[in-house]
Write a structure and sequence with these properties.
Length: 324
């Protein structure tokens, strides 16, 4: 049974919003348990690799039997090395390390505003530079609201740095993670990447580059690890949620959404994520909502919603989906 391009795009958007919201709440809660951010990144990569690397190897072998297709990383990635390395660096490796480390410094509500909330800003700017997309006045106004909201949240933390606080470190890490994911989304659009192959490729790059480096740094004492002290239940949960959920399911859904809606509109569809995750942090993590944070959240959400109304679907992506 084949679904229309619109149905696939909308379903991918719903799955993406749900998992991104859960990701923020669960990862912040995980920061108070045993594992370090480097351990959680390892669990993410190993969990995703357990499914995606055999899948990638099968795709590569199938393509070779047909006498076509390019591959890299010992036949684990179904994409050429250059595309695998560039997208994998931003979407597979740097994003995970920056985001997980940020949760050990700043609350989930800050992540809600500064990661999914700032994605439309960075994606729009990169789309203008890389894809030569036009930034309309209406969309620019929405992005201005997002910048104002980010400054209300992150600016307050930066001012507290002089008092010895460390929340600003998490804010900068969240913002950097958003830039990395925006870069991946724009590159996925530029290269016209298939959702499954793109997710396999960035996971293969993360596995080949991070796992050996992690093992070497831990064994040499340069990086602390709590894997030996953590309960098996905690490790297994991180492997399943961070690896299978946040990478396999969410990664494919997000890339599929990009193919239909385009990178800018796709990131704007995540308008529900900041509000839902901030509310979840209050209900389940007991985090307070200060006046600057509430104002920043409102401005970011308004900016994203305004941008969604100002944006138009990407017709080329829709036609590409229907042709498949």
């Amino acid at each position: 049974m084949r679904f229309s391009a619109r149905t696939v795009g909308l379903a991918a958007a719903v799955v993406t919003v749900f998992i991104w919201t859960s990701f923020i709440i669960i990862t912040r809660a995980s920061a108070g348990r045993t594992l370090t951010p480097f351990d959680i990144a390892l669990a993410r990569i190993v969990g995703a690799s357990s499914v995606l690397l055999p899948w990638g190897a099968w795709l590569v072998r199938s393509a070779r039997r047909r006498g076509g297709g390019k591959s890299s990383l010992f036949g684990l990635s179904p994409l050429p090395l250059r595309v695998t390395a560039v997208t994998g660096l931003f979407g597979g490796l740097l994003y995970a390390l920056l985001a997980y480390t940020g949760f050990f410094y700043a609350p989930a509500a800050h992540a809600s505003v500064l990661m999914p909330g700032s994605l439309p800003l960075w994606t729009a700017l990169l789309a203008v530079l890389v894809l030569r997309e036009r930034l309309t006045p209406a969309r620019a106004l929405g992005l201005a609201c997002i910048v104002a909201g980010d400054l209300l949240v992150g600016g307050a933390s930066l001012l507290k740095a002089f008092d010895g606080g460390e929340v600003w470190k998490g804010d900068l890490l969240f913002m950097s993670a958003a830039i990395c994911w925006a870069g991946y989304s724009v590159l996925a659009r530029r290269f016209g990447l298939d959702a499954v192959r793109a997710t396999i490729a960035i996971t293969a790059f993360a596995f080949v580059s991070y796992v050996p480096a992690y093992a070497l740094l831990v064994l040499s004492g340069q990086v602390a690890s709590q894997l030996a002290a953590a309960p098996w239940g905690e490790i297994l949960f991180q492997v399943l949620f961070q690896g299978l959920g946040s990478v396999v399911v969410s990664g494919i859904a997000f890339t599929q959404m990009i193919r239909y809606f385009g990178p800018v509109r796709s990131t704007m569809i995540t308008a529900l994520v900041p509000g839902l995750s901030a509310l979840g942090a209050v209900l389940w993590l007991g985090e307070p909502l200060s006046a600057p944070l509430l104002a920043g959240l409102a401005l970011v959400t308004a900016g994203i919603l305004f941008g969604v109304r100002a944006a138009r679907p990407a017709p080329t992506a829709g036609r590409a989906m229907e042709a498949r």
